[in-house]
């Protein structure tokens, strides 16, 4: 099978969907890999490293010519794909709700578009889960970006000139990104607290040495796994949570928000009135900025100041760590192909559980139930 790796063309995208390590492993599986010249440059991977791993380097048209599978970080422009084999797979984060026209173009071209961000959160798919691998790095980077603009230090310091107090950091939403944000803020020496709607996160917060801050009088979400995902909360819960945030946030120096609800806009967790109660010089990093933001006033890719508080949101936080984000993303794609590689077929064959979850188009049509509804 021929695998094509294109240079990412979206503004601000620095990542690449294959690494020299995954090229080597794909070649060992029996695939041939063609990479567009310069595809890895922003992730610090020179073309020669791909060549040494067994890839062929070419321009976009050469790379896609005769390809069975096209890898991307984001979905490639349909007009780049003219030379691929009929029914070729597009494997990328396809963002189908925002990019409907592009998905329709894939369908019209007879391509099979596979949205890697729809990978089910099941144990056997963990190694293929791009949301987890990228969120983890995003949680780390959010803390560093907030620390960078914060005019004070994170750790307590006892110096000859006097003592500096530790920064108070509050993490809202304790999924993959939030857990890494807690761990990172702790490593920097901050005093960390955290909250979530899922009761199961309380133990995880404690185990990282942080303080859980939870709504006590209204039930949150119990259970883990498929039953344990966040949903939109009742009005009663939202009111109790708003009161809790109001009483806690005024004493925080740094707030990192990460709260998402699968398939929905991000929940609003911090209002402008609450920001006004924070000390001047405090910093908020809103990791939900690309999904509409958890914080009133967040503007993606801008640093805004409200009531003396700096609010930061990136539209693509993993792209701020291009080398590691690419390395992990590339492994997710390799693990996906390797898990389904069928020696007799000489290529990957999907099963129904994962195939139905991620396949958007096939045989000239959109086939995913969430896009047909
Ligand atoms: P996410 O990115 O969808 O959301 C981030 C966090 O925000 C979640 O913990 C969520 O509960 C929380 N949240 C939502 N609304 C909130 C609100 N109003 N207030 C406060 N917090 C709110 O979550 P995620 O990082 O994808 O992880 C969710 C769960 O999935 C975790 O239990 C994680 O361990 C699990 N998971 C499983 C797999 C797998 O088995 N393959 C992979 C990744 C994650």
From TrEMBL:
E.C. code: 7.1.1.1
Alphabetically ordered keywords of this record: NAD, NADP, Nucleotide-binding, Translocase
Record domain Alanine dehydrogenase/pyridine nucleotide transhydrogenase NAD(H)-binding: where: 147-313
Keyword Nucleotide-binding (UniProt): yes
UniProt-listed SUPFAM superfamilies: Formate/glycerate dehydrogenase catalytic domain-like, NAD(P)-binding Rossmann-fold domains
Catalytic activity: NAD(+) + NADPH + H(+)(in) = NADH + NADP(+) + H(+)(out)
Entry-linked InterPro entries: Ala_DH/PNT_CS2, AlaDH/PNT_N, AlaDH/PNT_NAD(H)-bd, NAD(P)-bd_dom_sf
Pfam families for this protein: AlaDh_PNT_C, AlaDh_PNT_N
Cross-referenced PROSITE patterns: ALADH_PNT_2
Domain named Alanine dehydrogenase/pyridine nucleotide transhydrogenase N-terminal: residues: 4-138
PANTHER family: NAD(P) TRANSHYDROGENASE (PTHR10160), PROTON-TRANSLOCATING NAD(P)(+) TRANSHYDROGENASE (PTHR10160:SF19)
Family: Belongs to the AlaDH/PNT family.
Described function: The transhydrogenation between NADH and NADP is coupled to respiration and ATP hydrolysis and functions as a proton pump across the membrane.
Protein name: proton-translocating NAD(P)(+) transhydrogenase
Source organism per UniProt: Novosphingobium album
């Amino acid at each position: 099978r021929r695998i094509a790796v294109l240079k990412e063309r979206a503004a601000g995208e620095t990542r690449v969907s294959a690494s020299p390590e995954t090229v080597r492993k794909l070649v060992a599986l029996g695939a041939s890999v063609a990479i567009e010249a310069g595809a890895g440059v922003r992730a610090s991977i020179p073309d020669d490293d791909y060549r040494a791993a067994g890839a062929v380097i070419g321009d976009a048209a050469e790379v896609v010519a005769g390809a069975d599978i096209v890898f991307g970080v984001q979905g490639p422009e349909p007009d780049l794909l003219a030379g691929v084999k009929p029914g070729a797979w597009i494997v990328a984060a396809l963002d189908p709700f925002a990019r409907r026209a592009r998905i329709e173009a894939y369908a019209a071209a007879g391509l099979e578009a596979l949205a890697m961000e729809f990978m089910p959160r099941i144990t056997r798919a963990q190694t293929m889960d791009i949301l987890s691998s990228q969120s983890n790095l995003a949680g780390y980077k959010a803390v560093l970006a907030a620390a960078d603009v914060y005019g004070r230090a994170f750790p307590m310091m006892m110096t000859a000139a006097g003592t500096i107090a530790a920064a108070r950091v509050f993490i809202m939403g304790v999924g993959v990104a939030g857990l890494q944000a807690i761990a990172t803020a702790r490593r920097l020496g901050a005093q960390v607290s955290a909250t979530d709607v899922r009761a199961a996160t309380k133990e995880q917060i404690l185990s990282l040495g942080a303080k859980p801050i939870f709504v006590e009088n209204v039930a949150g979400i119990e259970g883990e796994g498929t039953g344990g995902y966040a949903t939109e909360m009742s009005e009663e819960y939202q009111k109790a949570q708003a009161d809790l945030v109001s009483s806690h946030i005024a004493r925080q120096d740094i707030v990192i928000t990460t709260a998402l609800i699968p398939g929905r806009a991000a929940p609003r967790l911090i209002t402008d009135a609450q920001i006004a109660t924070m000390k001047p010089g405090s910093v908020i990093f809103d990791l939900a900025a690309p999904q509409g933001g958890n914080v009133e006033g967040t503007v993606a890719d801008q640093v805004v100041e409200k009531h003396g508080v700096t609010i930061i949101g990136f539209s693509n936080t993993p792209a701020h760590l291009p080398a590691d984000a690419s390395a992990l993303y590339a492994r997710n794609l390799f693990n996906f192909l390797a898990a389904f590689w069928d020696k007799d077929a000489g290529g990957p064959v999907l099963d129904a559980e994962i195939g139905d979850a991620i396949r958007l188009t096939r045989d000239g049509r959109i086939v995913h139930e969430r896009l047909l509804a």
